[in-house]
């Protein structure tokens, strides 16, 4: 499932034909990078790919004031079909990507075990800061969002809270983890 394709095709279907700069502005206005897996700067490249695949089509060329001419694109019939599929995939697929911390935790450096509590405290502080920023932003922008967009943003907040809870549990378990790692290293040394 491609989030950026869903954003572009969905925006064109909902708002009508737009040029790349208009889609970029919309992505920035909606703070898309806070609740999706793409940056607003990726819009232009994705539009080129969608156009080459025939999912969007040039409708007209537009010029405003002294700005350069801009190609205005609309969604094509095949783009409408692709949009339907993307919406369905987005609502039915479950995506939770592996986090590098899991592998790093499973392969700890035996010479740096004493650094783990401070390292995870710092991670937890960054997570809490991100959550606070996200919640503050959501509070500020809620008046501009639809009910569905608000729920999308709340999903991100819930995910940050889940990460924080896991890190808090991990911090509580660190003495046991460190003890186990030391015991395993001592056992390796006597083998």
Give unreliable regions as ranges: none
* Main pleated-sheet profile: 3 strands, antiparallel
Strand order of the largest sheet: 1-3-2
- Strand portion, in percent? 5-15%
**Tally of contiguous helical segments:** 8
**CATH H level, superfamily name of the largest domain:** Winged helix-like DNA-binding domain superfamily/Winged helix DNA-binding domain
* Rg (CA only): 23 Å
Query: Which CATH class of the largest domain?
Result: Mainly Alpha
| Percent helix range | 55-70%
Q: Strand-and-helix sequence, N→C?
A: HEHHHEEHHHH
- Any guess at the CATH architecture of the largest domain? Orthogonal Bundle
Shape: elongated
Coarse structural class: mainly alpha
Predict the CATH topology of the largest domain.
Arc Repressor Mutant, subunit A
Distance separating the two termini = 49 Å
Per DSSP E runs of 2 or more residues, the count of β-strands stands at 3
The number of distinct structural domains comes to 2
Can you tell me about this structure?
It is built from eight helices and three strands; from the N terminus they run αβαααββαααα. The chain has helices at 3-15, 20-29, 32-35, 43-52, 77-92, 100-106, 116-141, 147-189, and strands at residues 18-19, 56-62, 70-75. 68% of the residues lie in helices and 8% in strands. Strand 2 (56-62) and strand 3 (70-75) form a beta hairpin. The model has no long low-confidence stretch (mean pLDDT 92). The chain starts with a helix and ends with a helix. The chain has a three-stranded antiparallel β-sheet. The chain has 191 residues and is mainly alpha-helical. The chain has two domains: 3-92, Winged helix-like DNA-binding domain superfamily/Winged helix DNA-binding domain (Arc Repressor Mutant, subunit A, Orthogonal Bundle); 100-189. The longest helix has 43 residues, at 147-189.
